[in-house]
């Protein structure tokens, strides 16, 4: 749970790098996704890895969409497991 909260916090930090008019949408989107996946079994490493990888890849996609340097997600990558 602690790792998931760190990932959520880092995703919200990345949202702050987006254009101001898009931040509320992506902050809400991130929260909804983390809430929707709270039922994932914390004892299933494969499910957690897949979920963390999805969070990282989607974050990269959004950063790229708004031409934000993907290097900003390096901390998120580290928290997610380094892939």
UniProtKB/TrEMBL annotation:
It comes from Smallanthus sonchifolius. This is Uncharacterized protein.
């Amino acid at each position: 749970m602690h790792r998931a909260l760190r990932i959520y916090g880092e995703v919200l930090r990345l949202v702050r790098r987006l254009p101001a008019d898009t931040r509320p949408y992506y902050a809400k989107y991130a929260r909804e996704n983390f809430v929707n996946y709270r039922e994932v079994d914390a004892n299933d490493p494969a499910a957690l890895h897949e979920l963390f990888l999805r969070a990282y890849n989607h974050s990269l996609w959004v950063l790229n969409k708004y031409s934000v340097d993907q290097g900003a997600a390096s901390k998120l990558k580290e928290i997610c497991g380094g892939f």
